[in-house]
Batch of 2 targets.
Target 1
Amino acid sequence: DAGVTQSPTHLIKTRGQQVTLRCSPKSGHDTVSWYQQALGQGPQFIFQYYEEEERQRGNFPDRFSGHQFPNYSSELNVNALLLGDSALYLCASSLVQGANTGELFFGEGSRLTVL
Amino acid sequence: GDSVTQMEGPVTLSEEAFLTINCTYTATGYPSLFWYVQYPGEGLQLLLKATKADDKGSNKGFEATYRKETTSFHLEKGSVQVSDSAVYFCALSDRRFSGGYNKLIFGAGTRLAVHP
């Protein structure tokens, strides 16, 4: 049973560029969340997708956008990259029926470096 | 808004020592509480959870009790091993949203280093 897979694992961009990160959820999961983890910090919630719609959003600017596909996989897009966007981006999947269990399954993350 | 505060690390212990990592929270309503662990080079994994006051979560020798009166969820283990070296995150689930969407709010994490 494959867990949550993310790609790419590492990438380097320059300021002003755009980046797309990809996530395949754990088999059977229908909800995908994205988190940003800056060095030495805890993950910060970016947004969550269910049924191809953004259901919740954290305190992130509109430069951060996402998409969920019919097969439940998801993309995170960041436009006009800033140095401060350098972080580990984590994808987590869950079942919406698991209301309030909080049991998210995390991928290993995509480490983005902005120069 | 809701928040989680953890003791700062790193915490350095010898093998078989007793471990406590403090966690307190601020929340509206009655959140579920979690400890996640991040081993080197791996993604976060759920270690244990508690969904209501006085619940005790346990797994792999780790325990934490949901204390509503002190808004705490401290992680403990009686005898740590070198393999427990990792970063530990306390988190709460905001249950105010309908539809079961599981947004987690994390603390900053506490790094644990266990030496032989």
Note: Chain A has a mean pLDDT of 92.
Target 2
Amino acid sequence: DQQVKQNSPSLSVQEGRISILNCDYTNSMFDYFLWYKKYPAEGPTFLISISSIKDKNEDGRFTVFLNKSAKHLSLHIVPSQPGDSAVYFCAAGGSGGSNYKLTFGKGTLLTVNP
Amino acid sequence: DSGVTQTPKHLITATGQRVTLRCSPRSGDLSVYWYQQSLDQGLQFLIQYYNGEERAKGNILERFSAQQFPDLHSELNLSSLELGDSALYFCASTRQLDYGYTFGSGTRLTVV
């Protein structure tokens, strides 16, 4: 039972354009959401997060939008750069307890073409 | 370098064998998480330790066990290995109980 779904395994965009990565979740107990970026042969690195009390969070070129009623979040990258090419994981936490474990999606491979 | 050290980076072993994966958390971090990433899968939570005590368990197989030592490093033991155990195993650490994960670069286990 996948509680966090990233339905697009891959996405290709042109340099300078917007990249939009999507994520859906099913567990209404989730109250904190994060995006991680992963390059080959490296561990995931934190990119941006959002609490369920907000619907938007910005950090430079990266913006995360949260639609709680639809149980959907998205990551916008504007403008996209070739160095953004990586696998992006959506993760959710707060499904109960105080252990701070995260539930991850399968990831979306973003390719930004020069 | 994230500050979280995982060894070895690569491991090839035969079915039925036992291996130990090691994780040294970032200096000052008390909590360690283990995740498994199989082919075309997201990271699956295995187990969490906080200051030496087991805090939470995911869908960890009975053949797998872990512990966190007094110096806060952690080891994940995988026994009676099967082909399906081939995966990337990631360790992450946090300062306290929070979502500020710092991941290591992972151990790639191949069971042949």
Note: Chain A has no helices and eleven strands.
